[in-house]
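Exercise (ungraded).
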Amino acid sequence: MAHSSHPGRIGTANVGSLGVDSRKLGVWTFIGSEALFFAALITTYLVFAPVNMARADAQNPKEYLDIWLTSVLAALLLASSLTMVLALAAVRRGDMKLFRVWLLATVGLGFSFLGGQVYEFTELYHHGATLSSSLFGTTFFVLTGFHGTHVLIGAIWLLSVFFKVQRYPDSPETVMDVELGGLYWHFVDLVWVVIFTVIYLI
Amino acid sequence: MAIAQGHVGHVSAPPATTVPAGLAGWLSTVDHKRIGIIYMLAAFVFFIIGGIEALLMRVQLGTPENTFLTPDFYNQLFTMHGTTMIFLAVMPMNVGLGNYVVPLMIGARDMAFPRLNAMSVWLFILGGLMLYFSFFAGGAPNVGWFAYAPLTQKPYSPTFGVDYWILGLLLTGVASIAGALNFIVTILNMRAPGLSLNRMPLFVWMQLIVGFILVFAFPALTVAQIELLFDRHFGTRFFVPSQGGDAVLWQHLFWFFGHPEVYILILPVMGIVSETLPTFSRKPIFGYAFVAFSGVAIGFLGFLVWAHHMFGVGLGPLANAFFAGASFLIAVPTGVKIFNWIATMYDGALSLTTSMLYSIGFIAMFIIGGLSGITLASPPVDLQQTDSYYVVAHLHYVLFGGSILGLFAGVFYWFPKVTGRMLDERLGKVQFWLMMISFNVTFFPMHIIGTDGMPRRIYTYESGMGWDLWNLVATVGAFLMAASVLLFLWNLMVSLRRGAPAGNDPWDAATLEWSVSSPPPPHNFDQIPVVHSRRPLWDHKYPEHAGDGHGASAPDPLVAGFEQPAIHLPSPTYHPLILGVGLTTLFFGILYSSIPPLSISLAVVGLALVAFAIVGWVRDSHKDSPYAAH
Amino acid sequence: MAGDLAHEAHESTRFYWMVGAVLAAVTIVEVAITFLPLPHELIVAVLMVLMVVKGAGVVMYFMHLKGDARILQAVFVVPFLLATVMILLFLLLFSQHVGIAG
Ligand code: HEM
Ligand SMILES: [Cu+2]
């Protein structure tokens, strides 16, 4: 059946009374909610940091965290943000080949990050830092672990976008699908920007 | 799904439905109206269960040194009662009404994300069921609805009760956040042409504010619960004081969520009476902008008062002064609203329907609860009253006298729209008066015994403390309240079958939901209306008074002045339900982490279901894309 | 239909590479600065500034929030401010707390 010339009319399509895409508004609001989720985790870490140091079983993060490894992790996520935005630019141009390259590169960088985190965790474990070894262990692993979980969710999100594009190559929603997955991905990177500074550098 | 092409001034054919019949139709539904009904029914069932728990407690407390309940079971009951009423009764009732009414009020054909909407309702129900499963799995949680540390730690709470409390509420939390996102986007982005924020019905305004409060407040609870879960299962020590953990941190995180939560419970109800009072006073709301913006102010300030629940901790004079000051401040926008409602009734042509009676009852009882709240906001006073029955009185005046009475007002108001039949007014009025009297008989004495020093959350007390009489009175009152609820149930069943037909607009109301049939067609509106004022339906019915009151008459909102969008309804799907079941299974797996084989198999099955549902969901979303050609 | 449909003019690929390079440079400065013999407070202050710069870069250019619809900016900025307020208030509330817990 023929279609309305206004794909963006109320109640039918995604662009509504505010002139923004509904899904995009939803994802941004969700990101706002996630910001508070990480704020609560970071708060916990910061509240306990001095308590950890004041205790007999203190574990000084400075002695446990490897700044070089973390810098590599930061670089990986930063690079993945760049490839993500390049993937979006490619799909906007209609360059599906480059889009695939950049999107898969993003996912690959994400998994490398996770690999690096697994390595970091096992190293820490071998040096005696565990969930229950100290307040540092407790707060550090839960905070960074949940960030890692979000990286994983982001990677799955991007993969599902990838497969959706493969399966329905001429879906008119492809660009928005990529943009939304990308928004979430950048947010996960953003959280890492904060964690990197607040937990690793300071 | 069928697509029909609309034209200017032409009623487009309703879409052919492919909705399966019977139970399957409900399990796979993505229609906001059906989802709203499921929400409301489930919330009502949980309300009854929570009420039964309350009655059991009242029997136990009716006489001193009673042995009707064991202490531990009593603890389980007050925990489950509070948790149920807040998370499984009032919240979902608000969401259910909103789900049904909001899209109709703003001239939309559905919520923005119908599948997400379905997922929300199933996750809420599954979370509630998971929580209740604890009764059969070693005992329900027995730590109070705010689950203070370190009582919640394994050594003091060795059963799985606390784990069920954490994981069940995490599920309902996911449901709530998803639902709130849906409301926010729907309300901001799906309004009919001309329906600016400034013209939006106040019920919609309050739902929008609640949506924002919810998405910003819930994460604190989620994090606190996750940390507690890790303490109990994976050896962390967030809330283990003996190992440097901090019980006060739990309180801060919990109440950072907890105080905004009380506004999540009350603001939608304030929205309800902001609709019913004008309708039954035959007057526009007095000071529309004040009602709307005091809601915004409440939502904002609500994030800065949380520690008034923690004066007993001894946070120090500076913190106490700050949080007391902010709490006093929040009484101002609350008072503004109350004056607006009263001014709306002033000089109006009141018609005292049951819904109106409940609205007025709401105002009266909420004032009492608000006043006791203000007294509690003063640290020296609170130090006397905290953890006493005075607090129990306060919270029931705001939550029952406020939220529940207001919800009854809403149910009597919108029942005709939902079912096409009127609730019986005579039964309704009898029920109202019985409820009002018994509510006060039950809860007013609690101010007195609270001030007399009776602590809350004790399973019995000695005779001769001066509490005996009032406790007995409260117990009698509680049973009268139960009788009133039974009367309502009776009214529901009778009216569903034999109630007078409602017609489109039984109350001569002003908002768009009354412009369509009762119950509305699946696509809500044959034509999307065009709104020119805050009272589109009064514009239509009384064109001589139309417009925003500036003299210029407005065009009829029900005669479309623009090219109508095609009717597009998403297809029914089971994937949201499957996703919910998968997530619940996964959570059971986490809960039984101490039994690896069980835990792992549950987790694997759960994840498989989630994966299956996500793949299906992506396919659904493609199939139903509003852009897709058919 | 302002907002989305209107802002079809997107930045060039080169621009993104430049943003990426700047962010990488900031990260290198961040790491380097922790090795300098400066007072701890100063290092912390500089790091916080650099963190905000980096975060803002990601949000404004990679997430395209700069110049995007106002409502999208609002639903992000408001919770972000709230999150900051939360962290600061909690730190204030717990600033005298070490003795009790430690
Ligand atoms: C005028 C505004 C209000 C003020 C100043 C206020 C103040 C307070 C204070 C200071 C407490 C703590 C008492 C204590 O534990 O020692 C409290 C408890 C409580 N308030 Fe309010 N309140 C107000 C309105 C409301 C509203 C509108 C609701 C819900 C609809 C509500 C629900 C509750 C609940 C559930 C508790 C008890 C929590 C618990 O300890 O289990 N309050 N209120
Ligand atoms: Cu409060």
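Further reading is listed at the end of the chapter. For now, observe: Residues 622 and 628 of chain B are 8 Å apart (CA to CA). Chain B has a mean pLDDT of 93.
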